[in-house]
Design a protein that fits this description.
The chain is α/β, with parallel strands linked by helices. It contains 9 helices and 10 strands. It has a domain of 114 residues: Rossmann fold (3-Layer(aba) Sandwich). The chain has a 6-stranded mixed sheet with strand order 6-7-8-3-9-10, with helices on both faces. The structure holds adenosine-5'-diphosphate and magnesium ion (MG).
């Protein structure tokens, strides 16, 4: 079943078409990779889907319902959530408080405090941060701060999770752990779109990949098709 449908999505910044006529669909349960050079429009596409930006043209359907034009918190409560390329945690608040925010404000209905706390605890354990539960989130290493963001997103109980360069700046061991985490999230039944430059991760865990360049979708296919596409090699992957 289709969980997301994006049609003719377009966003201008002044004269620059950051995203231009982009069409694609996402099937429930898949891990979709989104790649392309810096400035290709990947983050802008996430901003358009999550409601942070309003498109100049085109539309986004989530579970068959038009969501473009809705506020981010409304879209989040419908079950579509994202993380940020540059971590947007609250550094002075504890790991638990950061994740509790997700559970309290991202839940579809009014959630009781105790229930929100349980959801937050579960998400913290799931990403492997129980040992850091009471520490200020800002005192954690980069990889753990990224896990706080993922836990906060999971605490909103999403059906579709969009990860923006979750693996940037991580060492090879941490990348391996992050890949496992993404697969475990998918195994919970959550559909994933991930923007990533770490090709090993993209090629290993994505069932399908979309390539953006200058705001346009230039290719779409399996990892095998993308890694052997002449266009993609020329524009992005290199020899
Ligand atoms: N808020 C903004 N205002 C003006 N230009 C922007 C804004 N956000 C992004 N851009 C521009 O849009 C283009 C796409 O950016 P972005 O979506 O961040 O690319 P990517 O995530 O693929 O690196 C870039 O040229 C960038 O400078
Ligand atoms: Mg980006």
């Amino acid at each position: 079943m289709q969980i997301l449908h994006v049609e003719g999505l377009t966003k201008y910044f002044g004269g620059l078409a950051a995203v231009s006529g982009v069409d694609f669909t996402v099937e429930e349960g898949e891990i979709l990779g989104l790649i392309g050079p810096n400035g290709a429009g990947k983050t802008t596409l996430f901003n358009l889907i999550s409601g942070t930006l309003v498109p100049n043209a085109g539309k986004v359907l989530f579970k068959g319902e038009k969501i473009s034009g809705l506020k981010p918190y409304v879209i989040c409560r419908k079950g579509l959530v994202r993380t940020f390329q540059s971590c947007k945690i609250f550094p002075e608040m504890s790991v638990f408080q950061n994740v509790l925010l997700g559970a309290l404000f991202g839940a579809p209905e009014n959630i009781a405090w105790k229930q929100a706390a349980d959801v937050a605890e579960e998400a913290i354990a799931f990403v492997g941060l129980s040992a850091f539960h009471d520490l200020p989130a800002g005192s954690l290493t980069l990889v753990n701060q990224k896990r706080v963001e993922v836990a906060r997103a999971l605490a909103t109980e999403p059906e579709l999770l969009m990860l923006d360069e979750m693996m940037a700046g991580l060492n090879p061991t941490e990348v391996g752990e992050a890949m496992e985490l993404v697969k475990r999230i998918r195994d919970r039944g959550i559909t994933i779109i991930m923007i990533e430059h770490v090709m090993k991760a993209i090629m290993n865990i994505c069932g399908r990949i979309i390539v953006l360049d200058h705001g346009k979708k230039i290719a779409e296919g399996t990892p095998e098709e993308i890694s052997t596409s002449k266009t993609v090699i020329e524009i992005y992957l290199g020899e």
